[in-house]
Design goal:
Blueprint: E1 2-7, H1 9-18, H2 31-39, E2 50-55, E3 58-72, E4 75-87, H3 96-107, E5 112-115, H4 119-128, E6 131-143, H5 148-155, H6 163-180, E7 191-194, H7 199-205, H8 214-222, E8 227-228, E9 241-242, E10 245-253, E11 259-268, E12 271-279, H9 284-296, E13 301-304, H10 307-315, E14 323-334, H11 335-340
Parallel strand pairs: 4-5, 8-9, 12-13
Antiparallel strand pairs: 1-2, 2-3, 3-4, 5-14, 6-13, 6-14, 7-10, 10-11, 11-12
Helix pairs in contact: 1-2, 5-6
Organism: Chryseobacterium carnipullorum
Keywords: Transferase
Pfam family, one: Acetyltransf_1
Length: 359
């Protein structure tokens, strides 16, 4: 028989600080991820953050949500993002995932969104028949270095024995790429790289419509879901550690030393994202800075759904991409949420909204 345990902010805090959660065969959440959820400014004290499923007294699975809100006609509308869903192999086939999801739908009155989901999760969501695809975001993934050593064996495990050959090929290719990129120099205009959003940037951001303000973003920068470490949490099956995981707050100035562009960059093990981008002028200087940052930090690839930036990159003759391909971020909105929102509503999400800036 399946029993559910619901945890809000205080209950999650008590659960994690007690240490009880480490007694399970697998972890339903990491300590630092729980802390980030608890500090989420948009999470109300009584909102559900985590639901645990027990089968015959044993932890069988869990589902996590990340509360958020819209401001519509001056009123706050609460909803949440599905952030984790897991059922132990031992208990699969017992409809536990469906039970967990239905409970979370009930807790949020159907005001639920999912994105960046795995193929397995997407299949389940579609089987439930309660979601619709809305607001697709076209994007690009740009590649800057050869990484056959990791990419090919992951897709074709049967040729792992050829890894030394791929490693040699990568070294040769990347040496040539490095020579090509020698022309990319440090920009001669003023820019700053910070580890948080400062007051000047916060005031600049206030000019733009954004789902998150500076205080919210700073909290998540200080309380990341992923810690920079070579260690790994084997009992937690979602992202918790990476060898490189860093946020960079970028400030770009014009020739009059006026701040014109701010952006949050996230670098994880060679892969770059641009969760937030705010600009009053054209993005030429930011594109030049991005080229410099990519070369300096030996970035392997950048995924961007920033439409204006992607157009500027396409026009650039110096951007150091060696290959690109189209991407699309898909959002699944619960049908009840669609009914609750005004007709023609557009959330205008940036790349980092929801839990996308967290991993």
């Amino acid at each position: 028989m399946t029993e559910l345990k619901i945890l809000n902010k205080k209950e999650l805090d008590d659960f994690v600080t007690s240490g009880d959660f480490r007694n399970f065969d697998f972890l339903p959440i990491s300590e630092h991820r729980a802390e980030s959820h608890i500090r989420n400014l948009k999470a109300l004290d009584d909102q559900t953050l985590l639901v645990l499923a027990f089968y015959d007294g044993k932890l069988a699975g869990y589902v996590g949500c990340f509360p958020d809100n819209y401001l519509i006609d001056g009123k706050i509308f609460h909803y949440a993002w599905l952030s984790t869903l897991y059922v132990s192999e031992e208990f699969r086939g017992k409809r536990i995932a469906k039970t967990l999801l239905n409970k979370m739908f009930e807790e949020y009155d159907g005001n639920i969104i999912a994105t960046e989901f795995t193929k397995e999760a997407e299949t389940l969501y579609n089987m439930l028949g309660v979601f619709e695809y809305v607001f697709p975001k076209p994007g690009k993934r740009y590649y800057f270095r050869s990484d056959a050593t990791h990419i090919i064996p992951e897709k074709k495990p049967e040729i792992k024995s050829l890894k030394p050959v791929f490693k040699w090929a990568d070294a040769a290719a990347n040496s040539l790429i490095a020579l090509k990129n020698l022309t990319i120099k440090k920009p001669d205009f003023r820019f700053e790289i910070l580890d948080h959003i400062d007051t000047e940037s916060s005031e600049f951001m206030s000019k733009f419509q954004s789902r998150r303000n500076a205080d919210e973003i700073n909290i998540f920068i200080k309380n990341p879901w992923v810690l920079q470490s070579k260690s790994k949490e084997d009992k937690y099956l979602f992202s918790s550690h990476a060898e490189v995981f860093r946020y960079f707050w970028i400030k770009i100035y014009d020739k009059n030393n006026t701040l014109t562009t701010c952006s949050l960059l996230l670098l994880r093990d060679g892969y770059l994202k641009i969760p937030y981008l705010f600009s009053e002028t054209g993005l030429d200087r930011f594109t030049d800075f991005l080229s410099y940052f990519i070369v300096k930090n030996k970035v392997k690839a950048l995924t961007s759904y920033q439409q204006e930036l992607n157009k500027k990159i396409e026009q650039s003759k110096t951007f150091p991409k060696i290959y690109e391909r189209d991407f699309e971020r898909r959002y699944l909105f619960h049908k009840q949420l669609i009914e609750h929102l005004p007709k023609g509503f557009d959330p205008r999400y940036q790349d980092g909204d929801g839990d996308c800036m967290m991993t």
